[in-house]
Write a structure and sequence with these properties.
Radius of gyration of chain A: 21 Å
Low-confidence stretches of chain B: none
Radius of gyration of chain B: 18 Å
Largest sheet of chain B: 6 strands, mixed
Order of helices and strands of chain A: HHHHHHHHH
Structural class of chain B: alpha/beta
Number of helices of chain A: 9
Structural class of chain A: mainly alpha
Order of helices and strands of chain B: EEEHEEHEHHHEHEHEEH
Shape of chain B: globular
Strand content of chain A: under 5%
Oligomer: heterodimer
CATH topology of chain A: MetI-like fold
Number of strands of chain B: 10
Shape of chain A: flat
C-alpha cells in the first residue's frame, strides 16, 4: 500500500493545468460551431421538404445514438483509410470537428424544443403585421427561444467540456492526457486522476455559475 | 373593397368551408356568428393568409388572387392592408406594449422616432398610454387585447379582422375591449368581427352573417336578427320557433 500522497496531488495540479488551454479551447470552439451547426440542423428539421427534414433527423438520431468515442475513432482512424486526404488532419482539429458535430445534434434537440415552446400564435401575429417568415423567426421566436434554451445549452456545454476527456485517446495532450502521462511516470494513478477530476469539477462549477447568471439576466426582459 | 368568391377549405378529409362568398365594403362592419366548428374563424384566417384555402378567389382593390396559389409575397401584401386581432391576443411576450404596437412599423421601414410617436398615439386611443413600458405578462387580459388592437391598427389597414376578441377574457374585462372596438366602429373603420357577443354584434354591425356547417346560412341585420325564420339560427340564438 502506497497510501494517498497529498503532496503529489498538489504538485501534479499545475502540471495538468498547463493543458487547460487545449481542453477549454476544444470545448469552447465545439460549442460555438455546434451552435451554428445546430441552428442550421434545427431549421432543416423544420423544413417542409421531406428529404431535407429526413436527412437532418437522421443526422441527429445518429450523432445522439452513438458514443462520442466511436464517432471520434471513425473520423480519426477510420475515414482516412477511405479518404486519404483526411489523414492530414491532426488530432486537435479532428477533436474540434467531431465534438462540434456531436454537440450540434444535442443543441438541435434543445433549440427545436425551445422553439416549439414559444406559442405559435406569436408567429402568426408577426406574419399578420407584415413580417416575412424569416423576420418572424428572427425578431419574435428566436429571441424568446434562446431564453428558454440557455439552461439546457449550459448542460450541453458542460457535456462537451467533459467530452474532451476522450481526445487523449487520439493522442491529444489535454488535461486528461496530461494526467495520464503524469500518472504513468510517477505510478501515482489515484492522485493524478483525482487531481484531474477536481479540475473538471471546478470548470463545471464555474460554467454553471455563468449560465445561471446569464439566465437571470435574460429573464429580466419580460418573459418567463 | 374586398371580395371573396367560392372559398373552400379542407383540413385533410374535413371540409370546413364549403363555398363562401363575401363582399366587404368600405366602412362596413360585419359580424360573423355561429357555433364553433362552423368555419367562421377559418374564414378570417384564410383572408389573412394564415390558412391556405383549397379553392376560391380573393379580390382586394384591383388585385385578384387565386387563393390556393397565393405566394408568401402576395400574402404579405394582403396582410399590409388587412390586419388581425387574435382571440388569445398573441402579443410578443419579450416586447413592451409600445414595442408590440410599433414592431410592424419598424419592420416596414418607418423611422424609430416616427414609429414611437405613432405607437404612443395608438396606445392613447386604447387608453393605455401609461402602460407603454409594461410587458404583456404585467397586463390584464383586457389590457393585452387593447394593445393587440392598437398593434393591428398601426399599419393603417383598410380592414381589421377580429377573431373572437373577447372570448378569452374574464367577463368583467369584456366591456373595456368592446368599448375600444365600438370607438373604432364610430370612426368608420372597416371591420369583420367573429364574435359570440350577440347584443354587441346587433348594436354595431351593418350586417350579421350566420355561418353554419361551412357556409353563410343567413345574412341579416341587427334589427332583424331575432326575427329570423331560419330554424338553425333560431336554435343557435336559443329562441323558440314560432314564439
Amino acid at each position: 500500500m502506497l497510501g494517498f500522497d497529498y503532496k503529489y496531488l498538489i504538485e501534479v495540479m499545475p502540471i495538468i493545468m498547463r493543458a487547460l488551454p487545449i481542453t477549454l479551447s476544444i470545448g469552447c470552439l465545439a460549442m460555438v460551431f455546434g451552435l451554428a451547426l445546430g441552428l442550421v440542423v434545427t431549421f432543416m428539421r423544420r423544413s417542409r421538404n421531406h428529404l431535407i427534414r429526413g436527412t437532418a433527423n437522421l443526422y441527429v438520431s445518429y450523432f445522439r445514438g452513438t458514443p462520442l468515442m466511436v464517432q471520434l475513432f471513425i473520423f480519426f482512424f477510420g475515414l482516412p483509410q477511405v479518404f486519404p486526404g483526411l489523414s492530414t488532419i491532426t488530432a486537435y482539429p479532428a477533436a474540434i470537428i467531431v465534438l462540434s458535430i456531436n454537440g450540434s445534434a444535442y443543441i438541435s434537440e434543445v433549440l427545436k424544443s425551445s422553439i416549439d415552446a414559444i406559442d405559435y400564435g406569436q408567429y402568426e401575429a408577426a406574419l399578420s403585421i407584415g413580417m416575412s417568415p424569416g423576420q418572424a423567426m428572427e425578431r419574435i421566436i428566436l429571441p424568446q427561444a434562446f431564453k428558454v434554451a440557455v439552461l439546457p445549452l449550459g448542460n450541453t456545454f458542460i457535456n462537451l467540456i467533459q467530452g474532451t476527456a476522450i481526445t487523449f485517446m487520439i493522442g491529444l495532450k489535454d488535461i486528461m492526457g496530461m494526467a495520464k502521462v503524469s500518472s504513468a511516470a510517477s505510478y501515482r494513478f489515484l492522485e493524478a486522476f483525482v487531481a484531474v477530476g477536481i479540475i473538471y469539477w471546478l470548470i463545471t462549477l464555474i460554467i454553471t455559475r455563468l449560465i445561471n447568471w446569464l439566465s437571470y439576466k435574460l429573464s429580466k426582459g419580460g418573459i418567463i | 373593397m374586398m371580395n371573396l368568391r367560392e372559398v373552400h377549405k379542407s383540413f385533410d378529409d374535413l371540409e370546413v368551408l364549403k363555398g363562401v362568398d363575401l363582399t366587404i365594403n368600405r366602412g362596413e362592419i360585419i359580424s360573423i356568428i355561429g357555433s364553433s366548428g362552423s368555419g367562421k374563424s377559418t374564414l378570417l384566417r384564410v383572408i389573412n393568409g394564415l390558412e391556405t384555402a383549397s379553392h376560391g378567389q380573393l379580390e382586394i382593390g384591383n388585385l385578384v388572387y387565386k387563393l390556393p396559389f397565393m405566394k408568401e409575397k402576395d400574402k404579405r401584401s394582403v396582410r399590409k392592408r388587412v390586419s388581425m386581432v387574435f382571440q388569445n391576443y398573441n402579443l410578443f411576450k419579450h416586447k413592451t406594449a409600445l414595442e408590440n404596437v410599433i414592431e410592424g412599423l419598424v419592420v416596414d421601414g418607418l423611422k424609430k422616432s416616427e414609429a414611437i410617436k405613432r405607437g404612443q398615439e395608438l396606445l392613447d386611443r386604447v387608453g393605455l398610454r401609461d402602460k407603454q413600458d409594461s410587458y404583456p405578462s404585467q397586463l390584464s387580459g383586457g389590457q393585452q387585447q387593447r394593445v393587440g388592437i392598437a398593434r393591428a391598427m398601426a399599419l393603417k389597414p383598410e380592414i381589421i379582422l377580429f377573431d373572437e376578441p373577447t372570448s378569452a377574457l374574464d367577463p368583467e374585462l369584456v366591456q373595456e375591449v368592446l368599448a375600444v372596438i365600438k370607438q373604432l366602429a364610430d370612426e368608420s373603420t372597416t371591420m369583420v368581427i367573429v364574435t359570440h357577443e350577440m347584443r354587441f354584434a346587433q348594436e354595431i354591425s351593418d350586417r350579421i352573417l350566420f355561418m353554419n356547417n361551412g357556409i353563410v346560412e343567413v345574412e341579416t341585420t341587427g334589427d332583424k336578427l331575432y326575427k329570423t325564420h331560419n330554424t338553425r339560427l333560431q336554435n343557435f340564438l336559443g329562441i323558440q320557433p314560432g314564439s
